[in-house]
Write a sequence for this structure.
């Protein structure tokens, strides 16, 4: 099969790999029908995170079940499934508490499972899925979605679930004012999540017209292009002299965290989901003095997908709008370049 492999900074290749097979009784093999490039994939692509050897990459995909192990009873060949961005068992204390990203048997796409067996990356033609029943989410009544639904189902595997996690951590809800820092796919989904939760006013911080348009479509009431102190001042002006009740940090840099933190009113809440790339630590004294609460982290997508899936299927939300470019899998190197150069918000890959 063909699969996307990262060899080092700026070096993405689509290469031949062995087609996956069931290796454990709890496995399923999924034929990928849609995958994508994530903003976090750009960290190794840019060399921010090292690549020690050529590795399969990609952690977001949907597809059709092709084969299952003997212990798999709740999935069947032909089912359309959504893969969260990590593997989880569904039975350990962490999973039972909904924190599937801290599973005792956690594994990542492109890595290895508990038995030391390799797992395929999501940006390929097929994937062996360990712990398939507890990891995959079946899409009921759908096997051949149209393009719009396909994109929205794919968004649930990571970015919509992550935006939702940020909104929950920031306590977004009825009567609350919200600021979203970051206008990538996660930030845009954070706008959608805040709107879904009933936020009264949503300010999206963005400098790009195409992203601003989607933010408004998703529920943003205001756009702020300024950054730093000017951005904070603009938020205060828009909100009548006060800062926001809730702020979503969806980037992961020192600058984005500082921006987010200083847009929260005293006693407000900040939800952070941007993958940290190093930089300043959270200033505890500032939190102490202002009573600002911080929560978030890696989103337990497997926990959120069923709830969000219901809203996608009934048309309440359409997070697939964040995919503004569709490319064949063979063009994965160009997909990375397009996102790195901000010529695309998020690229959907079709094997």
């Amino acid at each position: 099969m063909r699969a996307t492999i990262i060899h080092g900074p700026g070096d993405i290749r689509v290469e031949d790999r062995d087609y996956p097979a069931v290796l454990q009784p709890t496995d399923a093999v999924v034929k990928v029908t849609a995958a994508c490039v994530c903003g976090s994939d750009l960290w190794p692509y840019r060399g921010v995170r090292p690549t020690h050897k050529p590795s399969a990459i990609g952690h977001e995909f949907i597809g059709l079940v092709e084969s299952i192990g003997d212990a798999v009873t709740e999935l069947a060949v032909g089912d359309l499934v959504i893969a969260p961005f990590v593997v989880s068992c569904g039975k350990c204390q962490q999973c039972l508490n909904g924190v599937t990203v801290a599973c005792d048997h956690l594994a990542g796409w492109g890595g290895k499972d508990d038995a030391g067996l390799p797992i395929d990356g999501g940006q390929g033609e097929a994937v062996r899925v360990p712990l398939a029943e507890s990891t995959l989410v079946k899409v009921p009544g759908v096997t051949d979605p149209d393009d719009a639904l396909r994109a929205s189902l794919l968004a649930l595997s990571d970015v919509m679930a992550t935006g939702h996690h940020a909104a929950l951590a920031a306590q977004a809800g009825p009567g609350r004012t919200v600021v979203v820092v970051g206008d990538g796919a996660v930030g845009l989904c954070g706008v959608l999540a805040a709107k879904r939760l009933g936020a009264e006013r949503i300010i999206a911080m963005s400098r790009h017209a195409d992203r601003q348009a989607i933010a408004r479509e998703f529920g943003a009431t205001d756009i702020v292009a300024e950054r730093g102190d000017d951005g904070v001042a603009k938020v205060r002006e828009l909100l009548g002299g006060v800062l926001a009740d809730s702020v979503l940090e969806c980037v992961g840099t020192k600058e984005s965290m500082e921006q987010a933190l200083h847009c929260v009113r005293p006693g407000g809440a900040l939800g952070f989901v941007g993958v940290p790339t190093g930089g300043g630590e959270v200033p505890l004294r500032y939190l102490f003095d202002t009573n600002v609460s911080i929560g978030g982290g890696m989103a337990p997508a497997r926990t959120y997908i069923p709830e969000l899936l219901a809203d996608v299927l009934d048309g309440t939300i359409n997070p697939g709008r964040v995919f503004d470019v569709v490319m064949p899998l063979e063009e994965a190197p160009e997909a990375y370049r397009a996102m790195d150069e901000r010529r695309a918000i998020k690229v959907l890959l079709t094997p």
